[in-house]
Design goal:
This protein is α/β, with parallel strands linked by helices. The chain has two domains: 1-100, Rossmann fold, CATH 3.40.50; 110-140 and 157-207, Rossmann fold (3-Layer(aba) Sandwich). Helices cover 33% and strands 25% of the residues. The chain has five helices and nine strands. It has helices at 14-25, 43-50, 66-79, 123-132, 168-191; strands at 3-9, 30-37, 55-57, 84-87, 104-108, 136-143, 154-161, 195-198, 201-204. The strands form two sheets. The chain has a seven-stranded mixed sheet, with helices on one face. A two-stranded antiparallel ribbon has the order 8-9. Strand 8 and strand 9 form a beta hairpin. Helix 1 (14-25) packs across helix 5 and helix 4 (123-132) crosses helix 5 (168-191). It starts with a strand and ends with a strand.
Amino acid sequence: MPLKLGILLSGSGRTLENLYERIEAGSLDAEVALVIGSKESAYGLVRAQKRGTPTGVLNPKDFEDNSAFSGAVTEALKEHGVELVILAGFLFFYEVPGEFENKVVNIHPGLIPSFCGKGFYGHHVHEAVINYGVKVSGCTVHYADATAYDHGPVILQKTVPVYAEDTPDELAARVFDAEMEALPEAIQLIAEGRVRVKGRIVHISED
């Protein structure tokens, strides 16, 4: 049976679209069971609705605190039988409950543990990378947890070069191409039952 995904997003949904295309091409053994947006204007919701995927909007501002918001997200995911949660450009902190431990995956546009944590998202990451002068950047797929942003065990990483003349937009495009490969790869490994977590170390078995 395909792995049932729940997608949390805040923006255009390009990552979601990539997952749909991989599923339709037969290279990703999963189905999108639910898409939750943090605001009604998130275009990713439109992408999901066009494919008939159930959608919902849960705005953190509508809840008394982050725990209440996270609880509402968890209940919605459970109602739709979600087996793996994907944070696809989700700009708010989801407090992962114990029952979803190692079942929530995030894609970060940098090489954790560098240039990560609160405030490091989108172009903020790429600007920091360029300003620091590092020669390699990339993306990290990792399990999210209830501790902090970008904190959980790393599943896989892909690197890209950083050139002296790069603009944030140019680096962002290069990293995003890597993200489009890394996230489906990680999800497929999980769908195949090849991923095991021991402490902070993620073990990936051979075929």
